[in-house]
Amino acid sequence: MAKAPEQEHPVKAFGWAARDTSGHLSPFNFSRRSTGDEDVRFKVLYCGICHTDLHNIKNEWGISLYPMVPGHEIVGEVTEVGSKVSKVKEGDKVGVGCMVGACHACESCNSNLENYCPKMILTYGSIYADRTVTYGGYSDTMVANERYIVRFPENLPLDAGAPLLCAGITVYSPLKYFGLAEPGKHVGIVGLGGLGHVGVKFAKAFGAKVTVISTSPSKKDEALKQLGADSFLVSRDPQQMQAAIGTLDGIIDTVSAAHPIVPLLGLLKPHGKLILVGVPEKPLDLHVFPLIMGRKSVAGSGIGGMKETQEMIDFAAKHNITADVEVISMDYVNTAMERLAKNDVRYRFVIDVGNTLAASKD
Q: Record keywords: Metal-binding included (predicted)?
């Protein structure tokens, strides 16, 4: 018989968990493993709320394990390190993103692409090497192998930096891999949410020209004035879309709702790439002719390896790139999820775990 969550490991932990597909989160006592030789333990100070958390707590992808403690944009302060840890020391500021394990032997792992390892272990809702369930950052403490620990530079604020561990790397990696992180490239960003707004910031920092593509005309001022985009396209306006045909080198599509992608292909130059990083629940309607006429590509990209994630965080610190966040208390999390479902956030909720989780424990 499987052990109860509070019995599996010796270190007591406290967080908020979803128990079923209602997705309702409530206080939850569980446990974490003791600090191994290569492990880093840290006190969680902030944790971003990713759209993935919303999908998972409601089991919208059909893979959820309950009880579930979500959260994979986790930052905090190191409280203990194992005897073989060399990367960080007690008191350092660190983070953990979307994964906490992989096989470390396959071609992907050997290429610093643990995110594409077939045995990659997710930060929460996954089965760890010791056969216990992984729990995420809506909790007071976190422990992970040092390979999956990201060092946070001193000048990067923890609250506004936390979402970069998922949202940031999710847009940074494809910009780099697909050759769009170069001065003079013209990049389209579809969707101005948690991913899209940091996508604009990274693309601009790389020296690219950026066009934001959105269904919401109301976001034009934010895109141009606050985030520094060069132009704005309303995707539902046929005249605007027609005028922009063949102008973009690549497009990062961050939208996780079902939406037409054929019009986006028309915006690409020959050899242009449409890179999908959002995950709609329903299959996309893709016609082949627009791909053939211009040798265009539709591709996908998922987060990044640990080496690239550290590179991204260091780049963000150097260029003062942070997420635009609304910091909330732990007991506001269910309301935040309701607002996130309606896209009522500019642009990322971040839970002030360090200051508000203990209060809800009593």
A: yes
Main-chain phi, psi angles of 251, to 5 degrees: -135, 130
The domain covering 167-300 belongs, at the CATH homologous superfamily level, to NAD(P)-binding Rossmann-like Domain (3.40.50.720)
Q: What are phi and psi of 262, to 5 degrees?
A: -60, -40
> Domain 11-165+324-361 - what CATH class?
alpha beta
User: How many CB atoms sit inside 10 A of residue 129's CB?
Assistant: 12
Domain locations along the chain: 11-165+324-361, 167-300
Residue 259 tokens, joined: 């939406």
- Which of 325, 15, 305 has its CA nearest to residue 156? 325
Residue 235 backbone phi and psi in degrees, to 5? -65, -20
**Cβ burial 315-335 (10 Å sphere, 16+ → b, else e):** bbbeeebbbbbbbbebbbbee
Q: Single out the residue of 161, 160, 216, 159 nearest to residue 192, CA to CA.
A: 216
Spatial distance between the Cα atoms of 25 and 30, rounded to a whole number of angstroms: 14
pTM of the model: 0.94
- The reply to whether omega before 67 is within 30° of 0 (cis) is yes
Cα Rg, the chain, nearest whole Å: 20
| pLDDT over 90 percentage in the chain | 90
pLDDT digits (tens, 9 = 90+) for 292-329: 999 999 999 999 999 999 999 999 999 999 999 999 99
Helix (H) or strand (E) holding 162, with range, is none
The DSSP-derived string for 205-217 is HTT-EEEEEES-G
For residue 45, give the nearest of 197, 170, 160, 166 by alpha carbon.
Answer: 160
Rounded Cα gap, residues 229 and 208, in angstroms: 10
Extract the runs of DSSP E, i.e. beta strands, from the chain: 11-18, 25-32, 39-48, 74-81, 93-96, 99-101, 121-122, 141-145, 150-151, 186-190, 209-214, 231-234, 248-253, 268-276, 297-300, 325-328, 348-351
